[in-house]
């Protein structure tokens, strides 16, 4: 989903995106590495596009061939080395690889560095009773409590409501989202047109006032939480956890895997962990052009 040209066209309005391509026999594409170029402090940087949790390489493995491990790794090495060679020079580079990408050695050999990050994943949701039983007791209590106060509505075009609640969540912490409403709207429009998104809104059972919202994006196999929002005035009702449970149920209906696209923040991670999903590592690869930009990049990564 994050690799599709229509996705990148929607979220890369503040810069430009391009792609490195590796080819094999007959000029058939064997690998791809999209990248997003923008400016920071007057310097050209390559970074993760807005609203896009994962990037990194795509490798095409020969169909109907049972590759031995050695041949598979050798194929990856050749393709990844070709992709790395094509990357343009930049003061900074940072990408988060998809969790299924384990091999980053060609990047390491080219001077790139690696940080391990984590998300939570449900690969299969065919047994909701088992998933519910695996949730932490306190989470089940919070979800039951929330159902007494709010009703959950599936509202495909409730973007403005979700955005306003999302903005409130940031402002409560004295921050603003690292992307604009225009970028969110651009992505929403194309997802809505393709029928690849749904917005869940928790509304007060008496007043119909929205307490929380969750925006889900998906393709034929996977779904991920694009963003959530919650009115701080109703935080004690725990409506956002009810929305996560409703999103999980929705993915179960459609036979999709579910990615929390988990935060590394302790408070948020604790909530995601309570659902009993699988803690899943993924690589964040980065590189600075020189010592000065390396120092600046470390500051940038901490923002």
Describe this structure in words.
The protein has helices at 5-11, 69-86, 105-109, 128-134, 137-149, 159-172, 181-193, 239-254, 266-273, 291-302; strands spanning 16-23, 29-40, 43-47, 58-59, 92-96, 113-122, 150-154, 197-204, 210-218, 222-230, 257-259, 278-288. The protein starts with a helix and ends with a helix. The longest helix is centred in the N-terminal third of the chain and has 18 residues, at 69-86. Strand 2 and strand 3 (43-47) form a beta hairpin. It folds into 2 domains: 5-117 and 282-302, Aminopeptidase (3-Layer(aba) Sandwich), CATH 3.40.630; 126-255, Gcn5-related N-acetyltransferase (GNAT) (Aminopeptidase). It contains 10 helices and 12 strands. It is an alpha+beta fold. Helix content is 37%, strand content 29%. Strands 1, 2, 3, 4, 5, 6, 7, 8, 9, 10, 11 and 12 form a 12-stranded mixed beta sheet that branches.
List the SSEs and their pairings.
Elements: H1 5-11, E1 16-23, E2 29-40, E3 43-47, E4 58-59, H2 69-86, E5 92-96, H3 105-109, E6 113-122, H4 128-134, H5 137-149, E7 150-154, H6 159-172, H7 181-193, E8 197-204, E9 210-218, E10 222-230, H8 239-254, E11 257-259, H9 266-273, E12 278-288, H10 291-302
Parallel strand pairs: 3-5, 10-11
Antiparallel strand pairs: 1-2, 2-3, 2-4, 5-12, 6-11, 6-12, 7-8, 8-9, 9-10
